[in-house]
Amino acid sequence: MNFRMESLIPAATLAGALVFGCAASAQQSGTADEAKALLARAAAAVKADKASALARFDDPRGGFKDRDLYVFCFDRRYGTILAGQPRTKGKDVRTYTDPSGKSFGQEMFANVNEGGVITVDYMFPKPNSDVPVDKESFVEGLGDVACGVGYYKTSAPGDLSRKVREQHACAVVMGLQQWGSLYNTCVGILENTLFELDRAQLISTEQNACTRLGFRPGTPSFAACVANGPGF
């Protein structure tokens, strides 16, 4: 029992790292509007000079990379990925599925249309990461190619992407065998710790809001404000 608990002590500290990573990610992540704006610029570049545009999309200094936002493109006839994360280039977009089993690549290939923008939700790793997180991409048909830009929806606590990160932390970082008893305990510790951290953060936010509204900490009115929410 002592060995088991000592083995899992680092698991609790991983929770703080996951929370910090989420906060840093939120600051370093692009938004839906920024993704749409980047796609509009990419579409204009493809229409002006497709070959030059595809080269610029993958060039770090080409003007089409912004934090975790980037342009990906694929051939509309064969599905070959022409631009995007290095690990994907040259592969068939139709073969891509996410951890939930969704064939998002096939969905993009089959549904994209000329001059129109479709939206596809799926899970995919950020650049320089192997951990899938929730992503929404906007994809537009541009002649014989289709290009898209997606943003990572990592700001919602308790979402599926965090669940995947918890599992990744226990299986890869901690080196525990998936679905074993120690692995399940590790995931449980992370879930409980992150829940408590989320609750503490929410309470702190509400306390700050109530203070700004003029309620004095330690008074019944301040306690009522925190309990009911500053909007009441």
Key traits:
232 residues; Beta-Lactamase; single chain; alpha+beta; 7 helices; 16% strand; 5-stranded antiparallel beta sheet; disordered N terminus
Account of the protein in words:
The longest helix has 32 residues, at 181-212. This protein starts with a helix and ends with a helix. It has helices at residues 2-28, 32-48, 50-58, 104-111, 160-173, 181-212, 220-228; strands spanning 71-75, 81-83, 117-125, 132-142, 145-152. It has 2 domains: 2-23 and 158-228, no CATH class; 30-152, Beta-Lactamase (2-Layer Sandwich). Strand 1 and strand 2 (81-83) form a beta hairpin. It has 232 residues and is of the alpha+beta class.
Reconstruct the topology from this structure:
Layout: H1 2-28, H2 32-48, H3 50-58, E1 71-75, E2 81-83, H4 104-111, E3 117-125, E4 132-142, E5 145-152, H5 160-173, H6 181-212, H7 220-228
Order of strands across the main sheet:
2-1-5-4-3
Straight-line N-to-C gap: 47 Å
CATH level-two architecture of the largest domain: 2-Layer Sandwich
Report the structural category: alpha+beta
Task: Identify the overall geometry.
Answer: globular
| Overall pLDDT | 80
Tally of strands = 5
CATH superfamily of the largest domain: PAS domain
Give Rg in angstroms.
Answer: 22 Å
Strand content: 15-25%
Largest sheet: 5 strands, antiparallel
